[in-house]
Design brief:
20 helices; 64% helix
Length: 482
């Protein structure tokens, strides 16, 4: 009897006994009534090792069992935090080599799968070590006018053999998809990003290339930093345009912005349009534009391709900052103008075509053959020719005189021939309009000749009057003397 009672007392309750309806979807789970799950097994707590006062070789990470690797990892980070004078290769050569070998090992360790479980303390100390190495005062020459890569030898930082390994370690930490951004963003914070942006002033192109890759990856991986990065880049552009006109990393920053602009969603935010108006267009003003113009033009064209309504704003901005005495810069502007016009729609073209072709007409008559030739190349684009043909009644009267002068007197044969081809194109396009412009040009020429003859006649009469006056005064003086 006792056994039966024990069996009945230990019977498991059925679901229906607990009021559970198997067909019901409105089930409320009371988590407080459940026993709390067992916590996951935590790795061995890693403690900060005592500070090191000298560099000594340490065993390799792969030679130790996994539980002992993280304390050794922290000790190796301490070794890599030591600073040396790399301008003198013979000074501290042994310590430098130990640091280099340690950095190489850390890069391999982070790149391998065994480093995925490194603790938060190890991540924090690693970012501190990276910061202590790369965030430094730049050489005195840094921040001045950027060197022309085609003419000047680039500055090469003597610290680079070790700096490169530190940057490689940072890339291996930031780039992998399995990096936990929720943890990493505690260490890759706004202060870290701000210091990265300051480093773009370095004159060493190798370092700027690494910085470009890392900042781009941070922008893509850490969404919380995106507005801060855009604002920081804007501030660098503002300071460059309106204050210093000296910065070595404008081209690399524009490359990053080109990729960012390519990902802008439509309709475009007002913040992004203001960036175009207040930063990108004024970047056409500084003298060293030739160093970064390719990247700048790409960013500007990206805006027009994203939103065709910005074409009028961009073209008028180019006209505002158009160079007057720098022919090399003028050729760059003409090339960018062609790319913008190829993305311009007819309505936007009509809004700016008058001031645009007034500038083109002046370029057609430039004595610098490259400027004149580059402006004539606009007619090589089928899209631009279609836009011009649709508005030929406005455009041809503006540029006809410049084309005629080129065919009459320009010294360069290529410019002469291209001008003849464009005249022939307009003649076939609209013979009546071409004839009207021809007559108007001839009338203006005849009037200008008449005005010139009248001016010369007045000068001749004035010269004769002066000679007569001198003759009379001379006779009077002669009579007085005699």
């Amino acid at each position: 009897m006792f056994k039966k009672m024990m069996k009945s007392g230990s019977r498991k309750p059925s679901r229906n006994d607990a009021g559970f309806d198997p067909n019901s979807t409105n089930m409320v789970v009371n988590h407080a009534s459940r026993p709390s799950p067992l916590p996951p097994p935590s790795p061995t707590t890693t403690k900060q090792p005592p500070p090191m006062h000298s560099i000594e070789p340490l065993p390799l990470l792969r030679d130790l069992p996994p539980p002992e690797r993280q304390p050794l990892f922290l000790r190796k980070l301490q070794i890599c935090s030591f600073h040396f004078d790399f301008t003198d290769p013979s000074k501290n050569a042994r310590e430098k080599e130990i640091k280099r070998q340690t950095l190489l090992e850390l890069v391999d360790y982070i790149q391998s799968g065994t480093a995925k479980i490194i603790s938060e303390l190890c991540q924090e100390e690693m970012v501190k070590m990276i910061s202590s190495n790369i965030f430094r005062s730049l050489p005195a020459s840094a921040g001045q006018e950027p060197a022309d890569p085609e003419e000047d030898e680039p500055y090469l930082d003597p610290n680079w053999p070790h700096l490169q390994l530190v940057y490689e370690l940072l890339i291996r930490y930031v780039v992998p998809s399995d990096t936990d951004t929720k943890i990493a963003k505690r260490f890759i914070d706004h202060s870290f990003v701000s210091n990265l942006l300051e480093l773009f002033e370095t004159e060493d192109p190798r370092e700027r290339d690494y910085l470009k890759t890392i900042l781009h990856r941070i922008y893509g991986k850490f969404m919380v930093h995106r507005p801060f990065i855009r604002k920081g880049i804007n501030n660098i552009f503002y300071r460059f345009v309106y204050e210093t006109e000296r910065h070595s990393g404008i081209g690399e920053l524009l490359e990053i912005m080109g990729s960012i602009i390519n990902g802008f969603a439509l309709p475009m935010k007002e913040e992004h349009k203001l960036f175009l108006i207040r930063a990108l267009i004024p970047l056409h003003k500084p003298k060293p534009i030739g160093v970064y113009h390719q990247q700048l033009a790409y960013c500007v064209v990206q805006f027009v391709e994203k939103d065709y309504r910005l074409a009028d704003t961009v073209i008028r901005g180019l006209l505002k900052f158009w160079p007057m005495t720098n022919c090399t810069k003028e050729v760059l502007f003409l090339g960018e103008l062609e790319e913008v016009l190829e993305a311009t729609q007819p309505v936007e073209f009509q809004r700016c075509m008058v001031p645009l072709f007034q500038r083109v007409a002046r370029c057609l008559n430039s004595s610098h053959f490259q400027v004149a030739e580059r402006s004539l190349f606009l007619w090589n684009s089928e899209h631009i020719v279609v836009l011009i043909a649709q508005n030929r009644s406005v455009i041809l009267p503006i540029i006809f005189a410049s084309l005629e002068k080129n065919t009459e007197s320009h010294w360069n044969l290529a410019v002469h021939g291209l001008s003849e081809n464009i005249k022939r194109m307009f003649m076939e396009m609209d013979p009546e309009l071409f004839e009207e412009c021809q007559q108007e040009y001839e009338e203006k020429q005849s009037k200008s000749k008449e005005v010139e003859e009248q001016r010369q006649s007045r000068w001749r009469r004035l010269d004769e009057a002066v000679e007569e006056r001198e003759r009379v005064v001379g006779e009077e003086d002669h009579m007085i003397i005699s």
